[in-house]
Task: structure prediction
Amino acid sequence: MSSLWPQPASDVLEAVASRRPAPGGGATAALTGSFGTALLSMAGAITVRKRGEDEALARTLAHLSELRGRLQTLADEDVAVFRAYVDASRRPKGTEQERHGREAALRAAGQAAMNVPLTLARTVVEALSLAPGLAGQSHPEVVSDVGAGAAILEGALHAALLTVEINLPHVSVEERAVIGAERNRLEARGHELAAEALHLTRERLPRGRA
Result:
């Protein structure tokens, strides 16, 4: 499978808008989450350039770089697992052995289709956990970019969790309960972090003259 990342942005956009089902919501969530994380990185890097080296900020930037790399990988993985599910659904089912093989392949592919967006949601929340700190310490000229990154990340989180929800039928009833509880925790935590980052951002935005 070719990666989405070396492709021109216009080609990726056309692929998402086409009648092909992949890249879909999960991959697009990973793409946008990567850009949201990149905005946080940009704000931190510019702050370092303007104010000088800061050990804590350097650690945050290294963490953001690692998270962005994970999100980029997840974008490609989401496309791959969806294609694997389609391939499994097209396996022959004429004999009992073929039916058993097809069912096993579908279970494995369905589990993967669940795991990728769930991992994506966890990674997005981890990135959001860094946004409030950046909103409080970034240079005033780039604080709006921190808020923008947090807003984009929260949107990516919602998209990832919707992809989790649509794949719930592929797992057992017991697993659904566990995943559903984690889904709710991730949504609540992500909203809390994004709201905090946006509040801190708006507090630091310059006020227009009356």
Remarks:
- Helices lie at 9-17, 25-51, 55-89, 96-128, 131-137, 143-166, 173-204.
- The two ends are 56 Å apart (CA to CA).
- The longest helix spans residues 55-89.
